[in-house]
Amino acid sequence: MTRDPEDLEKRREKINLAAEEHRQKRDEYNHLSKEWAKKRDELNEKARELIKEATKFKEMRDKYNALVKEEKVKRDEGNRKISKLTAEINRLKSDLSKKRGVNLEKMKRELRRLEKKQETMVLTREEEREVVEAISRINAEIKKEEERLELEPIIKSKMDELKKIREETELHHKKLSEYAELAQKQHDEMTRLYEEADRIRGEADKAQDEFIRIKTLADEEHKKHVDLIHQLRDYDKVLFATREKQKAKGEKGEDARQLAEEIFKRFKSGEALSTEDLLILQKSGYL
Description:
The chain has a domain at 34-204: Helix Hairpins, CATH 1.10.287. The protein is built from five helices and no strands. The chain has helices at residues 5-99, 104-120, 125-149, 153-268, 275-283. α1 runs antiparallel to α4 (153-268), α2 packs antiparallel against α3 and α4 crosses α5 (275-283). The two termini are 40 Å apart.
């Protein structure tokens, strides 16, 4: 490193300007990184709020799903009772009709046979007419017998019970459908909010990546700034030492001239001089 103070000053000023430039860039990057951090935090907070809201819809969905299960159990139990009671009523009707000499079950079997024949077989016009007439006749006989049987106290009681169970079962089925629809609405809203939260979290992650990138640039500028500041201190030390040396040299030269003048005055007054005095006069140009 040169010891010329003027050159040192120029070099120092150049380093100082570079250090200031890196400081400004560091501050700009730090400000920008804070903006990205703020955006990241706001996005994460928004995502948390959405998840919190979605959780409420999830709780409502689970509540309605639990009600669906309860109503399904009641509906299925009602259907089992309906099947059992219907079979019991049919047995009672069959038994009572047989006591009157009417085979209700036989008529129903014959009706099913004729209906299947009409549906599956190719019939002539005359055969088709005969089958239709037979179906109509048997239907009328079955209806008449059914109406008579339903007037029987035991059958009527069972029919009333069956009607009540059917109404209750239908009500449970209706509630089940309503709860299932409500549960689906809660689920759809929950899903929408979770998806929105995921999208916003993705934006927050991008903001975090940008924050890290900008913060890294700020750290790099800070390091460059600090390195240059250290160089400035080194230059300041060299400049101080150089100036002190020049000052000391100047002070020493002034002292030497003053001493030579005093010796020369003594010489002119006739005072005897020592060898050292003569050497000082010689170096100062008096001899």
